[in-house]
Fold this protein.
Amino acid sequence: MISLKEIKESVLHLFFPHVCTGCGNDILDKESVLCMRCIDAMPETNFELYADNPVEKMYRGRLRLTSGTAQFYFTKESLMQHLMHQFKYKNNRDLGLQLGKIMGEQIIKSDRIKVDALIPLPLFPAKEKRRGYNQATLLCKGMAEAMNIPVIDNAIIRPQHTETQTSKGRIERWKNMEGKFVLNNPDAIKNQHLLLVDDIVTTGATLEACGNELLKGENVKLSLATLCIASR
């Protein structure tokens, strides 16, 4: 016999369907916004397992990193592009939290990247106000749940607006970001190994500028993690 609870859940699902953000499939766990098919289809890099991976090579001579990783490859017109658009521009905060949790779980499993705290790459305040949130902070909150470490979101600020980086070359991007980050609360990061987090790394100029400012903190070590790395 069908219970009242089952009837209620069926009616709720009819009017408020719980479907996968990736493909629209309605066969997924209640606590997840992604079905297992989409989770399995996300193109993992496995960088967290290996020293001298492409992220670490990218920053050699540019940023004093202890370690670095990116969780997935990003290509145009792909599942990852769709998911990034959903959590970055469509207010899908639950997706951002789940993607962050996946990142944190994989970093913990790797046993190679051991850090004390998470630092989300800051947005210019007016941009964050328009969007309503910082996508890097969402990722950090999901990662913190998996890694059981704090998120420090006031250590560094981005007081100046910067032009979009999309159409700029590597040198132009670096010049565009120079001096755009300011260490705001150095006591909060003193003597800590920090993990700087963002959604995607392309040329690396933005994270380089932010990371070098963080390294001005007393006895600070720095690692880096992004959700995606741009793949040609």
Remarks:
- Strands lie at 67-74, 117-120, 156-157, 182-183, 193-201, 221-230.
